[in-house]
Each structure stands twice: as C-alpha cells, then as structure tokens.
C-alpha cells in the first residue's frame, strides 16, 4: 500500500513539475528603463507600478545601477512610486536617500501608459 501511495505522489509531482515554463500573467507587459537622481543613475531602489483602474494590482521592479526591468507590469495607465528605504534592510545595493514624495503614488508625479508587448525607455528622473 505504501508503494502505491508513493508512486501516486511521484506521478503527480512529475506531471506538475514537467509542464514547462509558465506563461506570463495575462494583461501584463515587459517594461524597462532608467531611474536617475539629479541626472546620475540611482544606485538602487524599487519602482512600483500600480494599475489606476485597480489599485490592488501592483508590481515592483528592482533598480540596480539606474536600470530596472519587469515582464509583469499591468497593461494600462499606471501610477508609479519609487523608493530606496528598503535597501537599508540589507539588500546589498547601495542606499541613497531620496525625497519621500517619490515613494507616494499620489505625490511622485510619475505615471506610465503601459501597452501590450515591450515598453522600453520608461524612464524616471528624480531631483533631490
């Protein structure tokens, strides 16, 4: 009886584990760009995209040496927030303080219209 149960679990695991790469989420697109602070690449941080029509839909992308990329950003008009505070928790990326307003969707002044496919050069310029 034990052998039958083990065989069933192994068969199920093999079937689930061998289905190949999962497709990306529906209604999502690839987005990439640069984030600068006073004209220089932001060493690290996160860019968060929030879908305006459904604020529960949010996607974060890590900023490293002024560049970010995500393949999961929702298609449509998105508000954008950028923060560096999380880097103080030991991410390994250098921490640089930025004005708090950039971390707030309502105050950052940033938005992006994300279209199906690839969205390149969606850049954000921060000022100290």
Explain what the structure shows.
- The chain is mainly β and 128 residues long.
- The protein has one domain: Sandwich (Immunoglobulin-like), CATH 2.60.40.10.
- Helices cover 12% and strands 41% of the residues.
- It is built from 1 helix and 9 strands, in the order H-E-E-E-E-E-E-E-E-E.
- The chain has one helix spanning 2-17; strands at residues 28-37, 40-41, 44-51, 58-64, 67-74, 76-83, 110-114, 118-119, 124-126.
- The strands form 2 sheets. Strands 1, 2, 5, 8 and 9 form a 5-stranded mixed sheet that branches. Strands 4-3-6-7 form a 4-stranded antiparallel sheet, with no helix packed on it.
- A hairpin with a 2-residue loop joins strand 1 (28-37) and strand 2.
- The chain is globular, with a radius of gyration of 19 Å.
- It comes from Aeoliella straminimaris.
- This is Carboxypeptidase regulatory-like domain-containing protein.
Which structural class should the secondary elements be placed in? mainly beta
How far is it from the N-terminal to the C-terminal residue, by CA?
68 Å
CATH domain class? Mainly Beta
* Main sheet properties: 5 strands, mixed
Write the CATH homologous superfamily.
Immunoglobulins
Query: What's the structural domain tally?
Result: 1
Percentage of residues in strands: 35-45%
Helix content: 10-25%
Question: What is the global morphology?
Answer: globular
What is the N-to-C order of secondary-structure elements (H for helix, E for strand)? Answer: HEEEEEEEEE
Question: How many beta-strand elements?
Answer: 9
